[in-house]
Amino acid sequence: MKVFLTKFISIAVLSLTYMSTSALASHHNSQRLDIFETVVADPSLTTLVTAIRAARLEGTLKGKGPFTLFAPSNAAFVELSEGTLGDLLNVENKQKLAAILTYHVVAGKMTAADVVKLNKAKTVQGDDIVIDSSDGVKINNATVIKTNIMTSNGVIHIIDRVILPEI
Protein backbone atom coordinates (compact mmCIF):
# COMPACT_ATOMS: atom_id res chain seq x y z
CA MET A 1 0.00 0.00 0.00
CA LYS A 2 2.87 2.38 0.88
CA VAL A 3 4.52 1.78 -2.53
CA PHE A 4 1.21 2.40 -4.33
CA LEU A 5 0.64 5.65 -2.40
CA THR A 6 4.20 6.84 -3.13
CA LYS A 7 3.79 6.10 -6.86
CA PHE A 8 0.39 7.82 -6.91
CA ILE A 9 1.78 10.96 -5.25
CA SER A 10 4.79 10.98 -7.59
CA ILE A 11 2.57 10.71 -10.66
CA ALA A 12 0.27 13.45 -9.32
CA VAL A 13 3.20 15.81 -8.67
CA LEU A 14 4.69 15.13 -12.12
CA SER A 15 1.30 15.71 -13.77
CA LEU A 16 0.81 19.01 -11.96
CA THR A 17 4.35 20.09 -12.84
CA TYR A 18 3.74 19.26 -16.52
CA MET A 19 0.40 21.10 -16.57
CA SER A 20 1.89 24.17 -14.88
CA THR A 21 4.83 24.21 -17.28
CA SER A 22 2.52 23.83 -20.29
CA ALA A 23 0.27 26.66 -19.10
CA LEU A 24 3.26 28.90 -18.45
CA ALA A 25 4.74 28.14 -21.87
CA SER A 26 1.39 28.82 -23.52
CA HIS A 27 1.08 32.16 -21.71
CA HIS A 28 4.57 33.23 -22.78
CA ASN A 29 3.95 32.02 -26.34
CA SER A 30 0.81 34.19 -26.65
CA GLN A 31 2.85 37.24 -25.72
CA ARG A 32 5.32 36.39 -28.49
CA LEU A 33 2.57 36.52 -31.09
CA ASP A 34 1.89 39.86 -32.73
CA ILE A 35 -1.57 41.44 -32.90
CA PHE A 36 -2.47 39.84 -36.23
CA GLU A 37 -1.29 36.36 -35.19
CA THR A 38 -3.22 36.67 -31.92
CA VAL A 39 -6.41 37.68 -33.75
CA VAL A 40 -5.98 34.76 -36.16
CA ALA A 41 -5.66 32.36 -33.21
CA ASP A 42 -8.92 33.56 -31.58
CA PRO A 43 -12.02 31.74 -32.92
CA SER A 44 -14.26 34.64 -31.82
CA LEU A 45 -12.47 36.99 -34.26
CA THR A 46 -12.62 35.11 -37.58
CA THR A 47 -14.74 37.77 -39.30
CA LEU A 48 -12.24 40.42 -38.25
CA VAL A 49 -9.44 38.31 -39.76
CA THR A 50 -11.36 38.11 -43.04
CA ALA A 51 -11.81 41.89 -43.04
CA ILE A 52 -8.14 42.55 -42.17
CA ARG A 53 -7.05 40.33 -45.05
CA ALA A 54 -9.51 41.96 -47.48
CA ALA A 55 -8.17 45.40 -46.54
CA ARG A 56 -4.60 44.08 -46.74
CA LEU A 57 -3.75 45.31 -43.22
CA GLU A 58 -1.91 42.19 -42.02
CA GLY A 59 1.46 43.93 -42.34
CA THR A 60 0.30 46.90 -40.29
CA LEU A 61 -0.91 44.71 -37.43
CA LYS A 62 2.28 42.65 -37.61
CA GLY A 63 4.35 45.87 -37.51
CA LYS A 64 6.56 47.10 -34.71
CA GLY A 65 3.82 49.09 -32.94
CA PRO A 66 2.95 49.28 -30.22
CA PHE A 67 -0.75 49.37 -31.04
CA THR A 68 -4.00 48.99 -29.19
CA LEU A 69 -6.69 47.16 -31.16
CA PHE A 70 -10.35 47.41 -30.20
CA ALA A 71 -11.30 44.18 -31.94
CA PRO A 72 -14.95 43.61 -32.91
CA SER A 73 -16.07 40.06 -32.19
CA ASN A 74 -17.82 37.89 -34.77
CA ALA A 75 -21.12 38.80 -33.09
CA ALA A 76 -20.27 42.49 -33.56
CA PHE A 77 -20.17 42.08 -37.33
CA VAL A 78 -23.59 40.39 -37.26
CA GLU A 79 -24.98 43.64 -35.81
CA LEU A 80 -24.11 45.58 -38.99
CA SER A 81 -27.04 46.28 -41.26
CA GLU A 82 -27.81 43.54 -43.77
CA GLY A 83 -25.40 43.46 -46.69
CA THR A 84 -22.94 45.94 -45.14
CA LEU A 85 -20.16 43.46 -44.42
CA GLY A 86 -20.46 41.80 -47.83
CA ASP A 87 -20.33 45.21 -49.47
CA LEU A 88 -17.26 46.25 -47.46
CA LEU A 89 -15.43 43.04 -48.39
CA ASN A 90 -15.74 43.83 -52.11
CA VAL A 91 -12.40 44.76 -53.69
CA GLU A 92 -13.68 48.17 -54.80
CA ASN A 93 -14.38 49.09 -51.14
CA LYS A 94 -10.90 48.19 -49.86
CA GLN A 95 -10.07 51.79 -48.85
CA LYS A 96 -13.37 52.25 -47.00
CA LEU A 97 -12.84 48.94 -45.18
CA ALA A 98 -9.26 49.93 -44.30
CA ALA A 99 -10.55 53.25 -42.89
CA ILE A 100 -13.09 51.42 -40.74
CA LEU A 101 -10.55 48.90 -39.47
CA THR A 102 -7.85 51.49 -38.71
CA TYR A 103 -10.53 53.40 -36.77
CA HIS A 104 -10.32 50.44 -34.33
CA VAL A 105 -6.56 50.93 -33.80
CA VAL A 106 -4.80 53.43 -31.55
CA ALA A 107 -1.04 54.00 -31.67
CA GLY A 108 0.56 52.98 -28.37
CA LYS A 109 -0.07 50.21 -25.88
CA MET A 110 -3.11 51.07 -23.77
CA THR A 111 -4.08 48.55 -21.12
CA ALA A 112 -7.57 48.64 -19.61
CA ALA A 113 -6.15 50.69 -16.72
CA ASP A 114 -4.91 53.27 -19.25
CA VAL A 115 -8.14 53.31 -21.28
CA VAL A 116 -10.39 54.13 -18.31
CA LYS A 117 -8.35 57.27 -17.59
CA LEU A 118 -9.19 58.74 -21.02
CA ASN A 119 -12.31 60.28 -22.52
CA LYS A 120 -11.05 60.06 -26.11
CA ALA A 121 -8.16 58.71 -28.17
CA LYS A 122 -6.89 59.41 -31.67
CA THR A 123 -7.07 56.40 -33.97
CA VAL A 124 -4.62 55.38 -36.68
CA GLN A 125 -7.39 56.30 -39.16
CA GLY A 126 -7.11 59.90 -37.89
CA ASP A 127 -10.41 60.49 -36.07
CA ASP A 128 -10.99 60.32 -32.34
CA ILE A 129 -12.93 57.60 -30.57
CA VAL A 130 -14.96 58.49 -27.49
CA ILE A 131 -14.21 56.53 -24.32
CA ASP A 132 -16.81 56.36 -21.54
CA SER A 133 -16.01 54.41 -18.40
CA SER A 134 -18.95 55.60 -16.27
CA ASP A 135 -20.74 52.23 -16.58
CA GLY A 136 -18.33 49.58 -17.79
CA VAL A 137 -16.18 50.75 -20.67
CA LYS A 138 -17.61 51.94 -23.97
CA ILE A 139 -15.72 52.88 -27.10
CA ASN A 140 -18.19 55.06 -29.01
CA ASN A 141 -21.30 52.82 -28.91
CA ALA A 142 -19.41 49.53 -28.36
CA THR A 143 -18.93 47.84 -25.00
CA VAL A 144 -15.55 46.35 -24.14
CA ILE A 145 -16.22 42.69 -23.35
CA LYS A 146 -12.66 41.37 -22.91
CA THR A 147 -9.53 43.29 -21.99
CA ASN A 148 -5.76 43.11 -21.92
CA ILE A 149 -4.92 40.42 -24.45
CA MET A 150 -1.20 41.14 -24.53
CA THR A 151 0.79 40.66 -27.73
CA SER A 152 4.39 41.26 -28.77
CA ASN A 153 3.46 44.57 -30.40
CA GLY A 154 0.60 45.85 -28.27
CA VAL A 155 -2.68 44.92 -26.66
CA ILE A 156 -6.14 43.83 -27.82
CA HIS A 157 -9.49 44.63 -26.22
CA ILE A 158 -12.53 42.85 -27.69
CA ILE A 159 -15.68 44.93 -28.27
CA ASP A 160 -19.27 43.94 -29.02
CA ARG A 161 -19.87 46.30 -31.99
CA VAL A 162 -18.11 47.54 -35.05
CA ILE A 163 -17.42 51.24 -34.55
CA LEU A 164 -17.76 53.40 -37.65
CA PRO A 165 -15.94 56.65 -38.44
CA GLU A 166 -17.57 59.50 -40.30
CA ILE A 167 -16.70 58.55 -43.90
From TrEMBL:
TM regions (residue ranges):
none
List, alphabetically, the PROSITE patterns matched. Answer: FAS1 (PS50213)
Give start-end of the signal peptide: 1-25
Report the domain of life of the source organism. Bacteria
> Which of UniProt's keywords are assigned here?
Signal
Give the Gene3D superfamilies listed for this entry.
Answer: FAS1 domain (2.30.180.10)
Which InterPro entries does the protein's record reference? Answer: Adhesion/Biosynth-related, FAS1_dom_sf, FAS1_domain
SMART domains recorded: FAS1
Residue intervals of the FAS1 domain: 32-163
- One GO CC term of this entry? extracellular space
Protein name, as recorded: FAS1 domain-containing protein
Q: Which organism is it from?
A: Paraglaciecola psychrophila 170
